[in-house]
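Sorry to interrupt, but I need a hand with the structure work. I would like you to pick a protein and set down its sequence and fold. Please put the record directly below this note.
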Amino acid sequence: MDLSNYHSMDPSMLLGIINMKLRHECSSVDDLADCYDIDSGGLQQRLSMIGYHYDAIHNQFTAV
């Protein structure tokens, strides 16, 4: 899946896709950003707009 348009995706849909990618493909949000050539900070900022932050211990975005 092309994540280059993450900044314009529906945030709830993006959350589900990103958490699935973290569960099945990537060991961290930085690894995911490298794999899909996206900005980790921008992704985290986009998901923080809907009240989610990256939890490195669980390798997923969770509600604040």
